[in-house]
Design a protein that fits this description.
The chain is α/β, with parallel strands linked by helices. The chain has 2 helices and 8 strands; from the N terminus they run ααββββββββ. The chain has helices at about 1-20, 25-30; strands spanning about 55-60, 65, 70, 75-80, 90, 105-110, 115-120, 125-134. The strands form 2 sheets. Strands 2-1-4-6 form a 4-stranded mixed β-sheet, with no helix packed on it. A 4-stranded mixed β-sheet has the order 3-8-7-5, with no helix packed on it. The chain is globular. The relative contact order is 0.15.
């Protein structure tokens, strides 16, 4: 009996490593239920409902969320750092830039002109985003 349970557990572990797909073997075992397929990592990074309001953005897991946003002229965007390490926000054209800021600190900027404003965290160059002001 223990051997069968171990095999079920191993099958569950393999299915999670392979991509979180729950197989019939796992579903029929006595193992603890796993997360539903809707909770896949690909679904999580999308724009949050708060981001659609056009003012609040977050920095999480070395990403700007949402990464790209479109806003009307005169909108103030506020980024909140949710990571445990410092980040900054610097426009590629130097039109705006923050100091390095730590967890739970914010940076705000009001966009007074239409245009496309790519930005980056200069501490972590893979972190990029774009603000499109219409």
């Amino acid at each position: 009996m223990n051997t069968r349970n171990r095999r079920g557990f191993v099958a569950a572990g393999l299915s999670l490593v392979v991509g979180g797909v729950v197989t019939r073997t796992v579903a029929q075992s006595d193992s603890t239920p796993s997360a539903s397929p809707q909770g896949s990592p690909e679904a999580s990074p999308g724009a949050s409902p708060a981001a659609s309001s056009g003012t609040e953005l977050t920095i999480e897991a070395f990403r700007f969320l949402p990464q790209d946003i479109e806003i009307p002229v005169g909108t103030t965007l506020t980024w909140t750092n949710l990571d445990i390490i410092p980040h900054n926000i610097t426009a590629e054209d130097s039109s705006f830039a923050s100091e390095n800021f730590t967890r739970d600190k914010t940076f705000s900027y009001t966009f007074e002109e239409a245009g496309v404003f790519p930005y980056v965290c200069t501490l972590h160059l893979s972190m990029t985003g774009t603000v499109t002001v219409v």
